[in-house]
Fold this protein.
Amino acid sequence: MPDFVRKRNRLRSYDYASNNMYFITICTLDKACILCDPQDFSLTETGQTVMEAVESIPRLYEGISLMHYVIMPNHVHMLLLLNRSNTSVSTVVNQMKRHISLQTGRPIWQKSFFDHVVRNEADYLRIWEYIDENPKKWSIDRYNPDYETKTPPETVSQ
């Protein structure tokens, strides 16, 4: 038995092929910054491959719309709408990840991905804004390897 228990990242008893909108985050292997330049967000060759794959989702999967996305240095955020689709979120993401790794000639993704079922319009608007603002907030992004989450040292009273 492992020393840790992996956090469940899926809702119990939820059908991830059901009609709904999903917020997806996919991270690169070891959170390596290989998708775009962290300074100006210009896409790398790998990032271009990712962009092409993300934008092809609606053509490849009937009933799935790509609502919004952003490619960050080491992760991708997407809002996907499943509407009368015969395909699950997991199938779309895993096939896309596999395709990109084949195109780049190496595995570039962490195992699994983060998903969030969008519950209402307020949730949708909050996520849309988060995707829009994410590049501007890269310096304080938890996925940024240069961002330090250390707490300041305690001050000593004398």
